[in-house]
Specification:
Protein name: Calcium-transporting ATPase
Radius of gyration: 38 Å
GO molecular function: ATP binding; ATP hydrolysis activity; calmodulin binding; metal ion binding; P-type calcium transporter activity
Shape: elongated
Enzyme class: translocase
Number of strands: 36
Distance between the termini: 90 Å
Number of helices: 38
Catalytic activity: Ca(2+)(in) + ATP + H2O = Ca(2+)(out) + ADP + phosphate + H(+)
Strand content: 15-25%
Structural class: alpha+beta
EC number: 7.2.2.10
Largest sheet: 9 strands, mixed
Length: 1084
Amino acid sequence: MQAQEPNDASPSVRLHIDDQEWLRDDNSAIARPHVYGEDYSVNALHYTPLTLDTQKHRCDFKVASTVVIAVLRFQSYKDYSKTGQAVCYHSSYQVRIDVDDLKSRNPQWTSEFIQTVSSIVRNRDFKGDSRVLAQELRTDLSRGLPTTTPSEPCGGLDDDDVSIEERKRIFGDNVYPRKKSRGLWSCLWTACQDTTLIILMICAALALGFGMKTDGVQQGWYDGVSIAFAILLVIIVTGVSDFKQSRQFQRLAHEVDNIKVEVTRGGRRINVSSADIVVGDVVQLKVGDQVPADGLLIEGYSLSIDESSFTGESEYYMPDPFQQAFLRSGSKVQEGYGSMLVTAVGASTEWGHMMKLLSNDNMLEQTPLQERLTEAATFIGKVGLSVALLLLVILIAFYFTGHSSTSGDAKFRAGHTNVTDAIDALVHIFSISVTIVVVAVPEGLPLAVTLTLAYSMRKMMKDNALVRRLAACETMGSATTICSDKTGTLTVNQMTVVSSWVAGKFIVAQSDYTDEIMYTLPASLRSLLFQGIVQNTTGSVFPAKSSCSQDELKGHERQAVEVAGSPTEAALLWWGLKAGMDFEATRLESRILQVQTFNSATKRAGVAVQDIDHRLVLVHWKGAAEIIVSMCSKWIDMEHLQKDDDSQHFPGGLLMSAEKRREIMAIIDSMASSSLRCVAMAYTTVEREDKETCNRGTWTLPDSDLTLLAIVGMKDPCRPEVRAAVADVTQAGVVVRMVTGDNLQTAKAIAMECGILEKGCVDELKAIEGATLRSWTDEERRKNLPGVAVVARALPSDKLLLVETLQSMGEVVAVTGDGTNDAPALRKADIGLSMGIQGTEVAKESSDIIILDDNFTSVVKAVRWGRSINFNIQKFLQFQLTVNVTALTVNFIAAMSSGDVPLTVVQLLWVNLIMDTLGALALATEPPTDELMQKPPMGRHKPLINYAMWRNLIVQAIYQVAILLALQFRGIELLHLSGETDATTINRTVIFNTFVLCQLFNEVNSRQPYEQNIFRGLDKNHLFMVIVGATLALQVVMVEFLEKFASTIRLDWQQWLVCIGLAALSWPIACLTKLIPSIHRSKS
């Protein structure tokens, strides 16, 4: 290494590594590459420059950032253990490192090593110890990867550590290949492929050619170029709209794929995005999790992996840390828990290789409503095509028989009309017929659905409802019943032990952190309790972020520790900590032999442990209080225990008499009536002859003849806003049912707090247990379920049974769920709603909508948006069909009577643009109103067009047809245009202007199909007002300034008043129309 004087006075360091320069950021010790010129130098942040003699001292060059950090830190170390002696110079020098020399002298992660590690799981090629591989990857299996910089006192990088960002650079990001979203040019090209537009393009080309041949270049290009420009405008608007919606759906798809993963970093368990997982991470797995990357199992308990997405087999894979330790990205944890060492991420995983060939198109699939509207549009288009063909035949017949003229051209006269003029006239007739098809085909219907779905999905995201499947958006508006979980959805999901029954003694939790009463328990009992809490848990305790001392865990200051785990697990751990439990010390006193993880079917969890000191094997159980008590034959009585007698390490118990059992059950009911979740803890010892089988994976933990230790009551308060939300959704005609695994008394108490049950409800059928639901016959279930509001002690199969029965009764069912076993019910329901915080990845993948904050109020907001979607589609459908009926009727009658149509091709294309794109944008983006939640659900098979819509549509169409035909046949007389040279052109312009203005006024009518006050909420919808205002301004430009393009002529102010007055009459007509009684309403 050579040192040379820098050009400036400030100290600087220049490192050339793989043709890139590496430097240190101002606020970070992590180096990053900068591709500058070879002679570019960077400021060394006031570190004293140095010279390192590579001939005498070994430099650890594992990764580039380590070199940079080490170099910049040499000033503080005289004797550096891994890199040797560094000589510091106190003058300013510029340093250049000979990388090739360093590579030849020092080990590093070679490309072969990186490829080997990344392919371990894909090739099933690893027979060593994962601990050895962890050392190679610079990973501490107990503390995970470091999270901070070397300058911090603990939890940070050592000098041979590799930063998170550096690992991403070397091994890649944990992002899977996705199908790229359609680009703007692709969307424009798709819009160009519309059949009717292609035909119009041909017509425009023919019109341009014949026009220039007939009238010369200066005058003959107007018609053809005008048509071409109108087509281009339609293509641009359609393509840009499709492009924006495609981008929106892709962004939402990325949100769906972004899952949270629990990793160990810096000795703490933290949740990070799956995209932030790196090679070397220690990932914690539990039931319902999706394996976020390829890796090796470090340790696991009763771990069962579902690899059906790879193998197609329904059998589960049982990994083993020493033989079959491979875990594949994308597989799911079906049972148990454990930890894994990440060896490959992103495209390097087996799942990543599969994703290169696949793409997630959930956001691009057509919804049922889109399919129905497409079918309706196709049918209407066929009607329009039939009318256009009939019109084509009539116009051609009239032209050749001399009954009419086309656009002022002379009638066909045999022997006088030349071929060019005849062909030009036929092209004009044909283009009019094609344009009728363009106007008749309501391609704006699917566009309106796309717009309202994209708009609603974006707004629902802000309301904590992430849509995974588009169909759920519209179905949510038809929901007639919501089956909701209790914990975390109706409650705040923050468990706290407020009372307990330990060895026959009631203990009420104190307000301060320490619980002095727990200290009065005998040491042997406290030791047994602590062992059951620590070893039979999926949670953990670690130093708080502000502290790095393990000794602080032994204190009683809540700020000194953090607890990770589910709310129930965390509540038990805090309860133990308050009693003086030392988590790490207790865990080291025994070792785990076998685990039975908690699941919602058995509602219990067990663990077999071997005591280090006494070599005894004990089995600890915890779970639903009445279930654990039913497994017990003994109980511990405080009076029979000597407080500090340690001669008997594990206290014995008294036989539980029938009377004592009833007394304990009464205690459980008393706690449950106070809306407490009751969890019991019990244990038993294993007989000597059973000890040899304890380590076998098939060994079943003994679950009878247990000794009851304690019953704890946990409070999970009802969310304060839930009661009002339940009232709102009930008023909307949606029945709320609570389905929970809790005790019946606890469930009833919470239901009363939430407003699902009335205070003092004594009807036994209002609140039932899952066993009762299962015992009913199909007929009894259909008879009794309409009155059921609470199902307690429910199994996942009960939730599925409930959904199936309600659906057979014609209900549209929305179901919330968070567990793996909820997946069948979530899939079966019309709308599956998973929980974003407590929900497992299996539940999320099975759901249609993810409730990001686990809050019932977000479910109610999703109902509002669902209703808004259906209502917006109804409004646009009424608006567009009015335009279709009017345009077809007016043009057909005019053609039949006079052989010509009042609107030109360009004018019809402009009308098509107004009603399809701008109309959809204006009406499909109306936000939900409170009035929507005061109406009954729309039902499962609601018609696309109801009676009220037909009523409004027909009346408006009749009015518009009447005034337009009056202007067509008597307009010159009515407008007093007789004798004027441009009378026909003025009349046609008035017809065109009146027709467009009628659509604008009717657009306002369509906002409120059922209300007399059509202006309600208009001032709040700024987008609607902007679109209508912009359309009106463009219409003025079309009439007043684009005479050649639009075939119009300027109108005076009186003629404008006539147009506006005729169009404005649609408002009072709409109000009078709504006085006609609705059959639907009268039936309701």
